[in-house]
Amino acid sequence: MPTLLTQSLAQMHPKLRTNGMGIGNTHRRISLGFLQPSKRNPLVRKYKPRRRHGSDQPSFRSLGDDFGSTVAREDTGQVIDEELGEPESPDGGELSRTVSLPSRVSEGADVHSEVDWILEEHERRYSTAHPSDEELGPEDDNGSSNDQEQDEGLEYGDFMRRVRQQLKQDMERRQPRPSYVSVSTRGSVPNVYESVDRKEDYEREVVTFKSEAKILASYSIPLVLTFLLEQLFPLVCSLTVGHLGKNELAAVSLASMTTNITLAVFEGISTSLDTLCPQAYGAGNYRGVGIHLQRCIAFSMVVYVPFAIFWYFSEYFLGLVVKEKELVALTAKFLRIAILGAPAYITFENLKRFLQAQGIFDAGIYVLLICAPLNILLSYTLVWNSRIGLGYIGAPIAMVINFWLMLVLLVLYIVYVDGKKCWGGFNKKAFTHWKALSELAIPGIIMLEAEDLSYEILTLFSSYFGTSYLAAQSAVSTTVTLMYMIPFAVGISSSTRISNFVGARRPDCAKIACEVGLSCSFFVGLSNCLILVTCRQLVAKVYSKDAEVVRLITELLPLVGIVEIFDSLNAIAGSCLRGQGMQAIGGIINLVFYYLLAIPMGILLGWTFNMKLFGLWIGIGTGMFLIGTTEAYLVLFPNWKKILETAAMRKEAEDAEESDSDDEYPSSDSDDELPSETTILLHR
């Protein structure tokens, strides 16, 4: 019977043959993968790749040697066959379930011709291995069996490596066009197709210290500019209001202190995306990147509600710790208006990390290049303009308007320019798994809040030394916060690269990224120190015209410049810990050194030894030195096995979540549900 069926198929015209069921049906096929691999059936067994023209690189025709499910390339019409290597079963295995997805080319003769060529080649091999009874002799039979046994042995991993190399070379020769995401009936994406769209192949990237330094520089420079432009908002606010008087400057400083403490909480929550999004992106889970973003925003908005209530009634709460009632009243007015702008700022920070995980670091520059000049114009107009100027209260109004403008422009960038490929639409999964998110968010909050709160505690205690000391401390803190953005940007860049490599399971490359980041911290710290020391007179005159305030700032900045060297190491080492997913350790270190050593030491030197602001900064500088060196050691000598295991467990949880969410999508069993131009066959 097999011989009769073979002879009948051989007499058919090639155009009437298919690789499954149906005549000339390229829309819905049943793969030959349902036939069991057999030593005596060369049609479905594996073959060793043959060299063509003396080269080890197989062409797309050689991919037909291994038969399984088919992926049709839309730009060339070539067909890639993938042997799934499913375990043998008595009934021959299950039929592959396939769906057709839209493409930019129609069902043409190119696809037919390549499939027909492969079928003809397999039929020739089948006829050679199974000749007719008259032609088959005992010697031929034995020889054929031996040849078949020698030809077996092509491993699945080697075959897929060659497939990906061929795809990569094809994509390098032409500009990739947007394609539809290929999904099965449960939404899974095959790696052979998904790898085409990825900007970087972290699993195969060759990384050296020099190459990583170049990439880190390319990431950091736009990010530094983004953070510096973003920090212009509180700086402009202080400058425009500071010239109204000492009380106004002190009130803005106190309001900035309160907002910094509050927003640091949401900065800490968003740092969980420094771990989650890059790891998901490095592993190729694009949809998961968008779900992490939505989950983090939803979680942040719920947490924001009690802080908004605190801001509204801040006059009562601040009155418990600040003696001057006029100062408290002005601060409360600022905070009540700032309530409207905080949600936009929180969402903006999360969207920035969403883009950074995809390697998009310049979006913030474009947005802030528009918003920063507008902020200066609005602040001056609403504070100083003779007709529409509102005085002190105009500064927070200008800040709120600019926060919302930043958010709108960044969303428009994602929609119309770049970054939306990881947005899978709104998903109800954003309101689940908050416990897993909080495991990274809470240590991130502690890491950032511990440092930010320490600065604000210094500002609060400086108010007991007098208004001039408070104004000087406020000016120095604002300057230090601005300078801190440089190492913080470098740290975010390092964190992104480390997380990408951890997601791709490349600890060797992640280690190099850690070493490059920490090496840059010393260069950045020395640069900040040099700027603060050499420009101390200019900085002091920018903030105030009061002689006493200018003198205090000028005397304090050299000491602050030395502290900035340690602060740079602290910032980058902490970011590297977040990239490794070790926020919990960083949070513990910050809490211990800041609140058990640095702040008590600063208060002791400032009050007991009457060193005032100098004592406060000596204490905080000592804590930064110890934190930076400890975190740098942990970054350079981590337990990579544990880090990879944790990342793998997180990925398994994401895959399980994706599997659950795929049930929400209807099964595409009907041919009418999806257009059928190029057929993409996926094995289940």
Give the CA-based shape.
Answer: globular
The end-to-end distance, rounded to whole angstroms, is: 31 Å
Main sheet properties: 2 strands, antiparallel
The DSSP helix count reads 23
Summarize the amount of helix as a percent range: 55-70%
The largest sheet has its strands arranged as 1-2
Overall radius of gyration: 32 Å
Ranges where pLDDT stays below 50 over 5 or more residues in a row are 15-115, 134-154, 174-199, 663-684
Order of helices and strands: HEEHHHHHHHHHHHHHHHHHHHHHH
The overall number of domains is 2
Kindly state the number of beta strands: 2
Structural class: mainly alpha
Mean pLDDT: 74
Strand content: under 5%
Transmembrane segments: 296-314, 334-351, 363-384, 390-416, 588-608, 614-636
Biased composition (Acidic residues): 80-91, 134-155, 654-675
Organism: Lachancea lanzarotensis
Subcellular location: Membrane
Précis, in short:
The protein is an all-alpha fold. It is built from 23 helices and 2 strands.
Structure in words:
With 684 residues, the protein is mainly α. It has two domains: 2-140 and 150-197, no CATH class; 209-382 and 393-429 and 440-660, no CATH class. The chain is built from 23 helices and two strands. A two-stranded antiparallel sheet has the order 1-2. Strand 1 (69-72) and strand 2 form a beta hairpin. Helix 6 packs antiparallel against helix 17. The longest helix has 37 residues, at 467-503. The protein is globular and about 105 Å long. Belongs to the multi antimicrobial extrusion (MATE) (TC 2.A.66.1) family.
